[in-house]
Amino acid sequence: MNDLIYRGIIIKQSNYGDAHRMLTIFTETDGIIKAVRYGIRGKKTSNAAAFQVFCYGDFHLRPSRGDIMTAVGADMIDAFYPVSEDIAKLSLISYLADITYALLGEMNPDSRILAMFLNAVYAAAYRNEMTDKIKAAYELKLMCAAGFMPDVGACGECGADAEYFSPDRGCMVCSLHRRAGDVAISADAAAVMKYLTVCPDKRMLAFNINNDACLSLLSDAAEKYVAAQSDREFNSLKYYKSMKKA
């Protein structure tokens, strides 16, 4: 059987058996797929660097029984080494990979989300961007791409001026219609949220935040929106926050 070539990025890896590694690869053509690289944890494994988490390249995969393929080779395009060398950046991209997997699942091709994910990884590796800015931008753009665009304007219940964001309802709300779990949002943070819902994906980081308080409000609203709409919490988010403070 001929090997197949998939261009993509490894978003997860885990040990498999005594010397193998299970890879989760976000590909251009087939979405998120899984493959095993046999013997990669051995001492004489060739091309091991191309099979590390967040390596981007062309992966040579061999079909096998079931949904899990066998990785037989790879041509690396970029390893994004600055991400793996910084624990805060590494934990951030691990969280972004988790929410991507949670919302997209396996075998669901989505070139738009893949491009946004690569944009976030590239920004973390090579651009002087705050990690919380990358996090919030990707969270909100991912939600829009997944069909959960928030309504960022007047109160979604009555049309009055809004001072809170409701993660459960996905809209802005006024103090009268505020419920438990809704989060305060400043006018500046709300303006950035609105920008992110309409801007081209390639421009998702082309905004300025002038103070830490505004970024904190934006980041809090975005992560709680992801958690509410995906109906789950992410341990990788907790780990990112702990590493950011370290």
Largest sheet: 5 strands, mixed, barrel
**How many strand elements?**
8
State the secondary-structure class: alpha+beta
SSE arrangement, N to C = EEEEEHHHHEEEHHH
* Euclidean distance between termini CA atoms: 49 Å
Instruction: Give the overall silhouette.
Output: elongated
Count the helices. How many?
A: 7
Order of strands in the sheet with the most strands?
Answer: 1-2-3-5-4
Low-confidence stretches: none
What is the mean predicted local confidence, pLDDT?
Answer: 95
State the share of residues found in helices, binned by percent: 25-40%
> DSSP strand (E) fraction?
15-25%
Radius of gyration: 20 Å
Describe this structure in words.
The mean pLDDT is 95. The chain has 246 residues and is of the alpha+beta class. The chain starts with a strand and ends with a helix. It has a five-stranded mixed β-barrel with strand order 1-2-3-5-4. Strands 7-6-8 form a three-stranded antiparallel β-sheet, with helices on one face. The chain has seven helices and eight strands; from the N terminus they run βββββααααβββααα. Strand 1 and strand 2 (20-27) form a beta hairpin. Helix 2 runs parallel beside helix 4 (131-145), helix 4 (131-145) packs parallel to helix 6 and helix 5 crosses helix 6. The protein is 39% helix and 22% strand.
